[in-house]
Design goal:
It holds the Pfam family Citrate_synt. The protein is mainly alpha-helical and 433 residues long. The protein is 49% helix and 6% strand. The protein has 18 helices and six strands. It binds acetyl coenzyme *A.
Length: 433
């Protein structure tokens, strides 16, 4: 059914005055009641903290049906894209709407690899951070600083220039991420190698040194490729909505992505992958699980089961299922199948999934519950987990930024509030207070 044919009627119970609100249909998923003219027509706002029931935009990029655990990029089920697909192929799909031909993918690979280097002066930025700075803090700073290199020269009203900015961001994220890791461990920053795949190049920049090449581990490359596909986009999550909101003021895209990285860092969002491993280390042993489950259920205790629960998924997060299966394969192939963290995580999952508290609230493992175990098995340190997530999610962020910028109806994002402060009062000079 076309937009506007269906309506909802909102009635003021005091005055009996009604207004009709048009319904906006989705291709899949629930329709939305369009309240954009409500304030103009009825003088009231809607109230929805945390956007529990609010759609903020139209989008053609990703579809999620959380009640049944469905995730699709441009209509393609995540399970199919993850099964042998390539991360840059997924990136092309998210950016352009269609899967690439062989020729298009080859050209796209070449295009991205041509943008992987950083301006040499950017190296000095890393030196400004203390050696033990969290790599996500470095990412926020350095990615934001790219706006200084591409500001006057970038016309965000030109779709071609927007695309170049998107390609630059996707290409430079691994270089910046690896450099923040090298800074952390005190090794020289490595230059990118354009003959390697996206993920192999990241591993090279993290693990090679000027004295020694990194011998590519195909298991690590494959596992990273899969994790990056699974993390590439997730519709209007907190960090993507942050990028859209920052971008809605027509800000520089590099600064907008830095805002997205900041939002991703929080433990309630992408920072959960690091928090899961910290939590497993804290639990330490299967015998302690009951104690921590009780803490997670105690409302007076701030402890939550990290990697559990999701705003949208009320069934198993499909990405978590894929990652759990791959965990088995990766650990087996790395001859690490006696991994106590993985055993602990599986036992914790089993106990939580059979506990009334978690069943009632439909709390299942999310994408971050098992991803850290794979990263850890690949030798990636805990504080780099969320950085890995940020590299992959940059594709989603720039795809959403471009979609928003292409939309002629796009407006600056400006929520309203219910004011609960003082009513008007008069200022008194300091001596009279
Ligand atoms: N452990 C214990 N209880 C939980 C958890 C958890 N991990 N998650 C939710 N709950 C409980 C809440 O206390 C609440 O209980 P109540 O109804 O008795 O008050 C109920 O479940 C609903 O939780 P909300 O916080 O209202 O749900 P919301 O949709 O706002 O939050 C979130 C979702 C932030 C992901 C939450 O589940 C959480 O904090 N999880 C742990 C952190 C995490 O893993 N984040 C990664 C999410 S995936 C991603 O962003 C990449």
């Amino acid at each position: 059914m076309a937009d506007n044919e269906k309506t909802y009627t909102l009635t003021n119970d005091e005055t009996g005055v009604s207004i009709k609100l048009p319904v906006r249909e989705s291709v899949q998923g629930p329709p939305a009641i369009d309240v954009s003219s409500l304030y103009k027509d009825a003088g009231v706002f809607t109230y929805d903290p945390g956007f529990m029931s609010t759609a903020s935009c139209n989008s053609k990029i990703t579809f999620i049906q959380g009640e049944v655990g469905i995730l699709e990029y441009r209509g393609y089920p995540i399970e199919q894209l993850a099964d042998g697909g390539d991360f840059l192929e997924t990136a092309y799909l998210l950016l352009n709407g269609e899967l690439p031909s062989q020729q298009e993918l080859g050209d796209f690979n070449k295009l991205i690899s041509r943008h992987t280097m950083l301006n040499e002066t950017l190296k000095h930025f890393f030196g400004g951070f203390h050696y033990d700075a969290h790599p996500m803090a470095i990412m926020v700073g350095v990615v934001g600083s790219l706006s200084a290199f591409y500001h006057d020269s970038l016309d965000i009203n030109d779709p071609d220039q927007r695309q170049v900015a998107a390609h630059r961001l996707i290409a430079k994220m691994p270089t910046i991420a690896a450099a923040s890791y090298k800074h952390n461990i005190g090794e020289p920053i490595m230059y990118p190698r354009n003959d390697l795949s996206y993920c192999a190049n990241l591993l090279h920049m993290m693990y090679a040194t000027p004295c020694e090449d990194y011998e590519l581990d195909p298991i690590a490359e494959k596992a990273l490729n899969l994790l990056f596909i699974l993390h590439a986009d997730h519709e209007q999550n907190a960090s993507t909505s942050t990028v859209r909101l920052a971008g809605s003021s027509l800000a520089n895209p590099f600064a907008c992505i830095a805002a997205g990285i900041a939002s991703l860092w929080g433990p309630a969002h992408g920072g959960a992958n690091e928090a899961v491993l910290d939590m497993l280390a804290m639990i330490g042993d299967v015998s302690q699980i009951d104690k921590y489950i009780a803490k997670a259920k105690d409302k007076d205790d701030g402890f939550r089961l990290m990697g559990f629960g999701h705003r949208v998924y009320k069934k198993y997060d499909p990405r978590a299922g894929i990652i759990r299966d791959v965990c088995h394969q990766v650990l087996e192939r790395l001859a690490d199948n006696d991994n106590p963290m993985f055993e602990l995580a599986q036992r914790l999952e089993e106990i939580a999934l059979n506990d009334e508290y978690f069943i009632e609230r439909k709390l299942y493992p999310n994408v971050d519950f098992y991803s850290g175990i794979i990263y850890r098995a690949l030798g990636i340190p805990n504080n780099m987990f969320t950085v890995m997530f940020a590299i992959a999610r940059t594709v989603g962020w720039v795809a959403h930024w471009m979609e928003m910028m292409d939309d002629p109806r796009q407006k600056i994002g400006r929520p309203r509030q219910i004011y609960k402060g003082y009513p008007r009062r008069d200022y008194r000079p300091i001596g009279e207070r």
